[in-house]
From TrEMBL:
Highest taxon in the source lineage: Bacteria
Keyword Oxidoreductase annotated: yes
Gene3D superfamilies reported for this sequence: Medium-chain alcohol dehydrogenases, catalytic domain, NAD(P)-binding Rossmann-like Domain
Keywords of the record: Oxidoreductase
SUPFAM superfamilies from the UniProt entry: GroES-like, NAD(P)-binding Rossmann-fold domains
Pfam families noted in UniProt: ADH_N_2, ADH_zinc_N
Single annotated GO MF: oxidoreductase activity, acting on the CH-CH group of donors, NAD or NADP as acceptor
SMART domains, sorted: PKS_ER (SM00829)
Upper taxonomic lineage: Bacteria, Pseudomonadati, Bacteroidota, Flavobacteriia, Flavobacteriales
Domain Enoyl reductase (ER): 15-329
UniProt name for this protein: NADP-dependent oxidoreductase
Matches recorded under InterPro entries: ADH-like_C, ADH_N_2, ER, GroES-like_sf, MDR_fam, NAD(P)-bd_dom_sf
């Protein structure tokens, strides 16, 4: 028996379970040069929402009535390929299916003895790399500076904050519950935290938490939190536009304060990026993250949901902040 999850509708606003369809399909057999993969861990990520729109972007949209795909750790259970053997674990952009074949293109072997397999979807995967390279390429942090991070208790945000501490900066995080604020301070060593859901005046709260202003703002959420951060940005500040989850389900783009004069008067760099821009730097980034993990300079959280059938709900739950750290489904 084999099952897949198709995109049934393009979500209007917030995604719902009705936007997905479960379908039973045949278990495939690998041809010459192919492997048969059994899905083990599935990464659900906010950016998948963008691929559900029928829009031209840096990555092609999902097609209706076709399987959704995301980062997946799978076990090779049959191999007709010289490059993989039965029992290998691989990481790749794969379809939401319990079993699938692959010709091996785009698959990387992962070593479960060096780190838990799920870590290759988080701290040692695209989210860790995004945190590291976004800060390195655009943030250009210097010791003693103030780093403000939104989405601070999520997969990217927790890594960003810890790198800020490794670099000797003051780090302030923004997240959506008091429990998350406690965790970013106690487990991830952020200096200060702001609960944006219980704070009336974010501009003032950021000013109080960052008395020397904000040198680098690592933005995972966009919208009004970005506006409040921009009101506190320093001369020569850098704004790393990594994500804008507060806008992903909006059907119309909201209006807000304009940032042009801040950028000019304060000589601020505001730059977006997609982590794929820097693919040639992935191996070095993973190496650095793995070294920090080994040295106990870096730690991570995961919210692991169990069961293939839970994949769509786990994805939807990202927009309610139900995850702490990386949201992963264990199959
Ligand atoms: P997270 O683990 O941070 O999960 C999403 C979190 O966003 C939730 O836990 C929730 O936490 C917060 N959130 C949800 N809705 C809102 C809202 N309306 N306003 C403010 N916060 C909200 O996800 P990732 O770490 O995987 O991704 C973080 C960001 O980075 C995303 O925007 C993603 O798209 C982006 N990204 C960009 C990449 C790139 O190449 N540029 C690559 C990878 C990710 P809370 O309880 O705090 O609200």
């Amino acid at each position: 028996m084999n099952k897949t999850i198709l995109l049934k509708n393009r979500p209007k606003g917030r995604p719902t379970l009705d936007d997905f369809e479960f379908k039973e399909i045949e278990k495939p057999s690998p041809k010459e040069g192919e492997v048969l993969l059994k899905t083990k861990y599935v990464s659900v990520d906010p950016y998948l929402r963008g691929r559900m729109r029928d829009e031209k972007s840096y990555i092609e949209p999902f097609q209706l009535n076709e399987p959704v795909e995301s980062g997946i750790i799978a076990e090779v259970i049959e191999s007709n390929s010289e490059n993989f053997k039965k029992g290998d674990y691989v990481n790749g952009m794969l379809q939401w299916k319990q079993f699938q074949t692959s010709n091996g293109k785009g698959l990387q072997k992962v070593d479960g003895s060096k780190a838990p397999l799920s870590a290759y979807l988080g701290v040692l995967g695209l989210t860790g790399i995004t945190a590291y390279l976004g800060l390195k390429k655009i943030g250009d942090l210097e010791k003693g500076e103030t780093l403000l991070v939104s989405g601070a208790s999520g997969a990217v945000g927790t890594v960003v904050g810890q790198i800020g501490k490794i670099k000797g900066c003051k780090v302030v995080g923004i997240a959506g519950t008091d429990e998350k604020i406690k965790t970013i301070k106690e487990k991830f060593h952020f200096d200060e935290g702001i609960n944006y859901k219980t704070t009336d005046n974010m501009k003032k709260a950021i000013a109080e938490a960052c008395p020397n202003g904000v040198d680098v703002y690592y933005d995972n959420v966009g919208g009004e939190i970005l506006d409040a951060a921009m009101a506190n940005i320093n001369y020569n500040g850098r704004v790393v536009c990594c994500g804008a989850i507060s806008l992903y389900n909006k059907t119309e783009q909201p209006t807000g304060p304009r940032h042009e004069t801040t950028l000019i008067k304060k000589s601020v760099l505001m730059q977006g990026f997609t982590v794929r821009d820097y693919q040639e730097e992935f191996p070095a980034a993973i190496q650095q993250l793995a070294t920090w993990l080994q040295e106990d300079k870096l730690t991570y959280s995961e919210t692991i949901v169990e069961g293939f059938d839970e994949i769509p709900q786990a994805f939807i739950d990202l927009f309610d902040g139900k995850n702490k750290g990386k949201m992963i489904v264990k199959v």
